[in-house]
Amino acid sequence: MNKHITAEAIQQYAVVSKDTSAIHLNVEAAVKVGYKRPVAHGMYIMGLAQSLYLTEHPSQWITTYSMKFQKPLLVDTVAIFDFEVCDGNIDVTVAIESGEVIASGTFSVKERS
């Protein structure tokens, strides 16, 4: 499932989460620390993965989750979320269009009662 990560979405997340770190919102600050443009919040990406999965599987509920980030996800990038069932859990991979993996993790799910 593809999702365009926009500056507007990141700005909205920054307000709600109260994480207004400049590397998420300001091009100059991001460039100063070595990025081409602002980076998405890790918690935004993890929450988005959960939301996308549950939209496709509304009868399920996520009980546990973990995610490891290999690289930052730059704003104004298309993120590709891939979900696979493995040993009763859901493995999630977040990549960019080049195929480079940004993050990976696992959800435990159960059916809603």
Briefly characterize the structure.
The chain is of the alpha+beta class. It contains four helices and five strands; from the N terminus they run βααααββββ. It comes from Paenibacillus glacialis.
Structure characterization notes:
The chain has helices at residues 7-17, 22-25, 27-32, 42-56, and strands at residues 2-5, 60-69, 77-86, 89-96, 101-111. The protein is α+β, with helices and mostly antiparallel strands. The protein has a single domain (2-111), classed as Roll (Thiol Ester Dehydrase, Chain A), CATH 3.10.129.10. Strands 1-3-4-5-2 form a 5-stranded antiparallel β-sheet. It is elongated.
Which structural traits does this protein have?
113 residues, alpha+beta, Thiol Ester Dehydrase, Chain A, 5-stranded antiparallel beta sheet, 4 helices, 32% helix
